[in-house]
What does this fold into?
Amino acid sequence: MKVQRPEVIPDGLYNQKQAAELLGVDRHTVAVYEAAGQITFKSRKAGGRKVTTGAEILRCWGEMYHL
It folds into this structure.
């Protein structure tokens, strides 16, 4: 995971691949984080893809560094 705070728009929507890139981890690691409740995703109606917000990415990153 990246040590630097991810540059995100708090209200922006990010898919699992984008979240992984911002956090500096593999996409499969993000799925593990989701299963553990460390980050939440919601399914979009269009295409059923999972998305999360920038604020959720920052929350997940902060939990990893106990901020």
Helices lie at 16-23, 27-35, 54-64.
